[in-house]
Amino acid sequence: MPTQDALFGSSEPPQAGSATAGTGAGVASTVPLAERLRPQHIDEVVGQRHLLAPGRPLRVAFDAGRLPSMILWGPPGVGKTTLARLLAGATGSHFIVLSAVLSGVKEIREAVEQAQTLRRAGRSTVLFVDEVHRFNKSQQDAFLPHVEAGLFSFIGATTENPSFEVNSALLSRATVFVLEPLDDSDLGQLLDRARAVLHGPLLDPQARELLINFADGDGRRLLNAYESAASAHPGVQQLGPEQLEAAIGRMMRRGDKGGDVFYDLISALHKSVRGSNPDAALYWLARMLDAGMDPRYVARRVVRMASEDIGLADPRALRLALDAAEVFERLGSPEGELSLAQAVVYLAVAPKSNAVYQAWNTVQDLVRRGGTQPVPPHLRNAPTRLMKDIGLGKDYRYAHDEAGGYAAGEVYLPPELAGQPFYRPVPRGLEHKIGERLAELRRLDEEARKTR
Q1: What mean pLDDT is predicted for residues 231-255?
Q2: 340 CB-side CA count, 13 A
Q3: Does the pLDDT value for residue 371 go beyond 80?
Q4: Cβ(350)–Cβ(317) under 8 Å?
Q5: Residue 298 near residue 337 (C-beta atoms within 8 A)
Q6: Are 281 and 273 in contact (CB under 8 A)?
Q7: In angstroms, rounded to a whole number, what is the distance separating the alpha carbons of residues 310 and 321?
Q8: Which tens digit of pLDDT belongs to each residue from 107-143?
Q9: Where are the domains of the chain?
Q10: Between 316-331 and 337-349, two packed helices, what is the crossing angle to 10 degrees?
Q11: Can you give the pLDDT at residue 407?
């Protein structure tokens, strides 16, 4: 039967478990820092507030002591194993861990037998399957009758999209919860806890920013890097970026050849794309990947570039960037990296426009500073007789019934903002045609107003 070994974790979970956060005081220093910081209560978990805040779904399950079968989908180092262990502890369940990398049907069968034995003894079981997407269809199917019968609560963890990687039959019997990368605030909080546990060195502001950027939302990565840096500089009170990079090793050093830290590489890639230089863009992309940067992070930056710098000058750029990110998720490294290179080259040679980016920033700033403007009466909804009687919706012109499908002269902004343009298309790519269309519509508006 499954026991604590390379395949199976502790059969009796503490009232906690996480790769992201916890106090861990008093644990032997030979235990990795990430393990020492596993929380002892759900309140100690860093991040995932959309699932763990009061009233949110996993917090409700934890407080109620009721555990549905679920899939935890998220990137590495965000607490998937943590949450599984905490939830098992909250229900008082026996906790069995299977690794889909190392396990097969034999181990699944042994886990089922153990759960059956525990049920006869009046014990409930939580079966946690790490990297469930690595199980094939027949292996995933082996869980179905036991999940259906309630033999155990099933928790699968995956870094891949479960829509593609988990059988639909198993997916229909489990609730999918999406875990998000830890943000900078979460990582900073985790870093402070790590320093307190290790009694380690402070990081100066630049080194702290460097380490948080390097972690890229992965709590385990942050903790491993800080532990390495602290071990490499015993007795040092504060570390700067050079000491941090020297301690972390090849990944950080190679990302800093020539003196530029890794966020400078990101800047160089973005500016090369914006500057329509595909050769430079490919070079900086190769530098980033060779430095060990997470290609998923690179993919997110590429998607951002498509929105910020190409925009509606070539709307296909955003779709291609998203496709490249999806291809990488399906293929992984190194095969999937070619899709990122393809997207970067396309973005570099595409016509450029930041008109939507500028318009969005302008409108956001206006809304923040300008207070709340009421919706003009003719644009308001009037589902009741009373609302119609007081004039709501009156004189609204249905554009489809107007000549050319356009209600010339109609006003859609509050009176204080009428006529103020936010979006100004550039004379490049598709936006050149968009600009011509908007100019024609404004001409029709002017003619309509003159005849009133």
Answers
A1: 74
A2: 29
A3: no
A4: yes
A5: no
A6: yes
A7: 11
A8: 888 899 999 999 999 888 999 999 888 888 888 888 8
A9: 33-178, 184-248, 262-349, 376-450
A10: 170
A11: 82
C-alpha span between 75 and 72 (Å, rounded) = 10
Query: Two tokens at 127?
Result: 């079966």
- 379: which 2 tokens? 């644009």
Distance of CA 59 to the CA centre of its chain: 20
- Tokens representing 13? 């979970």
**Cβ contact 164:130 at 8 Å:** no
- Distance in Å from the first CA to the final CA of the chain: 86
Q: In 3D, which of 108, 111, 99, 135 has the Cα closest to residue 6?
A: 99
- Which residues, including other chains, have CB under 8 Å from residue 264's CB and lie 6 or more apart? none
CATH 1.10.8.60 fits 184-248, yes or no: yes
CATH code at 33-178: 3.40.50.300
CA 77 to chain centre: 12
Which architecture does CATH list for 262-349? Up-down Bundle (1.20)
